[in-house]
Amino acid sequence: MVVVDAECKFTMIDVGGYGKNSDGSIFANCNFGKRLKEGQLDFPEDAPLPGLDEPMPHVIVGDEAFPLQQNLMRPYPGNELTNNEDKKIFNLRLSRARNTSEDAFGILSKRFRVYQRRLEVKPKYVNKIVLATCVLHNFLKTDSMTILSEVIEDEAANSSPRNSALHNLMHVGGSFAGSSYLTREKFKNYFSSPNGSVEWQVRAVQQGRRYN
Length: 212
Fold this sequence. Notes:
Blueprint: E1 2-4, E2 10-12, H1 23-29, H2 31-37, E3 47-48, E4 55-56, E5 60-61, E6 72-73, H3 85-111, H4 123-139, H5 144-157, H6 175-191, H7 201-206
Parallel strand pairs: 5-6
Antiparallel strand pairs: 1-2, 3-4
Helix pairs in contact: 1-2, 3-5, 3-6
């Protein structure tokens, strides 16, 4: 598993997980996931969102495969979206934030064409190829924005709905979970407020598209 930051740089977490294991399971059992859950990562200090005074935590964005935590946001489940436009808007905005990861992996495959075909090497070498290309990507990142524009153009020309198997994890109990739900509620309210809304979001969710 790899974490991608806003500049499309890669941070190694875990490479070489079995395909049968879900992203959420791999994340929960890797050092990064454990340290995140225990609050041992060096996140920046809480800071207010634009237009607000209340400090909010910095968060990692994930899909439904990941657990909701104070510094890890996942979308609202589908059964909570019926007749709730604010939650649909939150899922939409979270989904768009995750596009950074999608674009970054597009950049990686554009730069290293080895990913555009089957890797015909022994499994022990696959992990090394992934690690090496991620390190080289960060080292050579001076022209990544040019490659990113090519990726976006390619995706626009060959866009198709993508379905993925989503693996739900059990909710974590206690006050920690309550704090996580409250943080998500605050982000949801912000995205639907005058300070945090964008003009196209209501139109997008009213078109009936589902974001999770």
